[in-house]
Write a structure and sequence with these properties.
single chain; 3 helices
């Protein structure tokens, strides 16, 4: 995330997984990602239906979680 926000200057980072992938969802939440979108029963895998889960984190949210990095905050313009 540091590279994406500091070096590439992205404003938001998004990821997608399925609702059965609890480890990925938990890891993303620990990094500060929030649920952004859910497509219900959009994925059929191994005989089961899962929701397609979209998560994202905004640049401002990232720097709120990591105030020690605010000296490197790229311009939003």
């Amino acid at each position: 995330l540091k590279f994406l926000f500091e070096e590439l200057g992205l404003r938001v980072v998004r990821l997608w997984t399925h609702s059965g992938n609890r480890r990925a969802i938990g890891s993303a939440e620990k990094m500060g990602f929030k649920l952004g979108h859910r497509q219900r029963q959009a994925i059929f895998k191994n005989g089961q239906l899962f929701d397609n889960v979209g998560m994202d984190i905004l640049r401002e949210e990232y720097y709120t979680l990591h105030p020690e990095l605010t000296d490197y905050l790229p311009s939003l313009e």
